[in-house]
Design goal:
The chain has 328 residues and is of the alpha/beta class. It is built from eleven helices and twelve strands. The protein has helices at residues 11-22, 59-69, 83-88, 91-110, 145-164, 186-195, 215-228, 245-255, 282-286, 295-308, 310-314, and strands spanning 2-6, 26-31, 50-53, 73-76, 115-119, 168-173, 175-177, 200-203, 209-214, 233-237, 242-244, 264-267. The strands form three sheets. The chain has a seven-stranded parallel beta sheet, sandwiched between helices. It has a three-stranded mixed beta sheet with strand order 7-9-11. Helix 8 (245-255) crosses helix 10 (295-308). The N and C termini lie far apart (41 Å).
């Protein structure tokens, strides 16, 4: 299998690339290398892959790559993903997550790519605080500019399937965490703040419930969908390891040897904050996948990785999103 991985130098993308290399797949990575996509994320596998620097908005460059390398499959991780940034700077989310995806789809259509797998998010379903778990046909009801841009992308793919016969598969993972996640995200941000002697920050009450999946489990699920999934289907990816934000932060503080009572501060809630994400994952379980890493074990592994790899995050700390106590 020859795979073009767009956004393959980002958090989930780079973990997927390592998994694909272990499977013996031929991998071409195409990444813009924004603040969250870093070549260092691929250090372990650079000698086994082809890396190309570029933007998915560049339809012409994408076409050249497809002609030159003739991939069987395109797996798209390329996206702007941080909710806080989407509140402050929504334009880049619209450009990358909608127009960039359009550029990809046009190339998939023109060059008759065998399969297009797109990585979406559970956030497209919106807040499920007073509702049931969302299956793959649950109505989309996004709350943030980020989630709305991802929902728009999903609908665009469905339309290309209906109109042009595009072979696609969409995956909607729950909250990923683990090695190589950018410091602006909740778990690495908490770890790094504690290492700087600063308390963890909780938006609102901290009772926001998420389903947490260790990134290696998530990328294994994506490979299952590639190998065993069906065309023109959507697959939720979840671990059924639900916990509120406050519980996650308290567990990290304990793992690092601090007292939660002394190392938490509260800040105002984000605009449009969703209180609960929850999905049904019967469909992906039917093709044989299930998570392996428990939440507690995953958090311990993640803390250990950030403690042992300070070189990776020290140079990319954005004080606006990591060390500042101010919200979003």
């Amino acid at each position: 299998m020859r795979i073009l991985v767009t956004g393959g130098a980002g958090f989930i993308g780079s973990n997927f690339v390592r998994c694909a290399v272990k499977k013996g797949w031929e991998v071409i990575v195409y990444d813009k290398l924004t603040y969250a996509g870093r070549l260092e994320n691929l250090n372990e596998v650079l000698s086994y892959i082809k890396f190309i620097h570029g933007d998915i908005l560049d339809e012409g460059q994408l076409a050249k790559i497809i002609i030159d390398y003739n991939p069987n499959v395109i797996v798209n991780f390329a996206a702007e993903t941080h909710v806080d940034r989407s509140i402050n700077e929504p334009a880049s989310f619209i450009k990358t997550n909608i127009l960039g995806l359009f550029s990809l789809l046009e190339n998939v259509r023109k060059y008759d790519i065998e399969l297009f797998l797109h990585v979406s998010t559970d956030e497209v379903y919106g807040d499920l605080w007073n509702d049931k778990e969302a299956d793959e046909v649950y109505p989309l009801n996004p709350s943030s500019p980020y989630a709305a841009s991802k929902a728009a992308g999903d609908l665009l793919i469905l339309a290309y399937g209906r109109t042009y016969g595009l072979r696609y598969r969409i995956v909607r993972p729950c909250n990923n965490y683990g090695p190589y996640q950018h410091p602006e995200k909740l778990i690495p941000r908490t770890i790094i703040r504690l290492l700087h002697g600063k308390p963890a920050v909780i938006y609102g009450s901290g009772m926001q419930i998420r389903d947490w999946i260790y990134v290696e489990d998530c990328v294994e699920a994506i490979t299952f969908v590639l190998e065993k999934g069906s065309d023109r289907e959507i697959y939720n990816i979840c671990a059924n390891m639900h916990a509120c934000v406050k519980d996650i932060i308290e567990e990290i503080i304990k793992i690092m040897g601090y007292d939660p009572a002394k190392f938490i501060i509260y800040s105002k809630n984000r605009p449009g904050e969703d209180m609960k994400y929850a999905m049904k994952c019967d469909k992906i379980q039917k093709i044989g996948w299930k998570p392996k890493v428990t939440l507690y074990e995953g958090l311990r592994r993640t803390v250990k990785w950030y403690l042992e790899n300070k070189w990776w995050w020290m140079s990319v700390i954005d004080e606006k999103y990591v060390l500042s106590d101010a919200p979003w």
